[in-house]
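Late entry, evening session. Most of the bench is empty. Finally got around to the prediction I had been postponing all week. Sequence below, unchanged from the version circulated by S.P.
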Amino acid sequence: MGTGSATCGQATLEKYRLPSSRTYNWSYTLMPASTSLSESGLSDIAAKLRSDGVCVQDKSHNKLVVPVGNGSSLKQTSSGNAVSGSVTIPPANDLNGCLSGNNSFTVEANFIPTGNPQFNMIASKGDHAFGLRTENNMLYFFIHAGGMWRTVSCERGTDASSGWIGKKHQMAGIYDAENNMIRVYCDGKMLAEKSTGTTGGVTVSGYDLTLGACPETGRSSQADFYEFRVYSKALTESELASQNTSSPAYGPDSRYVQLWLDFDDLAEAAPVGDVNLDGSVNIADAVALQNYLLGRKPLSSEGKAAADLDGSGKLNVFDLMLLKRLICSK
């Protein structure tokens, strides 16, 4: 912390504190690199190494451990950690339940756009569920309900000349199931709203919630994401505006918060293959994964991350085969 402590200003934020009551471990990596490698090239390699095996701790009651690295990279910026690319959110019953049917929800992200593709995906659970994105100089939110896409959008320059790129934005899509309305919010203002025209709720999707991509269409993003949150409530304009202040209307411990990711909140991932999280990799881990694939026993989000040996983001028989090979090689 800076000089003067907190006598004339804010104390050190909780996420930057290192309590003395804990035991800490640290490590470093020596990375060979060509002397001709550019700074950006070196940064790209370092970002990939730093992202491999890194997880982010969800601060909601779901306590998900979200792996970073498969399709995304973690970077340090002057505003804290950010990820570029896409991040797949492990499934959770409460989270999935609030994003389908006649259940109100709000999906919110804080990000810096780094480009302007035709479809810059902020978040989605598949094209036949919902999506939040920028599109052709519009801010765009849609749900799939009653067999049709229901959309709301507003005009907003999203190219370099408009001043959109390179600046941090707070954007949210809101589904108000009680009033059959959808809304799009950005940077302190509710910019547009529209009736869904149906009492049918959001179509149930088998795809995982994804930050920075649509898991159904493969559309991706050009952005650095800093925070990602999901609420089981249609937040108002003033409530959303408060979420990035020191006194949010709904903090991570609120019953309405179903996901609260801050990419500064890193978690230590379980070793690759340690499916049952007992600290070692052996035949018991293969049995645990096999039971999960057969639908006999669930796995925690940490166990799922450790079991994803092929890095596909989905657990299948290939992971089981690779795990058995890993065990035999020990």
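Two things to note before I forget:
Residues 179 and 195 are 8 Å apart (CA to CA).
DSSP finds six helices and 17 strands in the chain.
Will write this up properly tomorrow.
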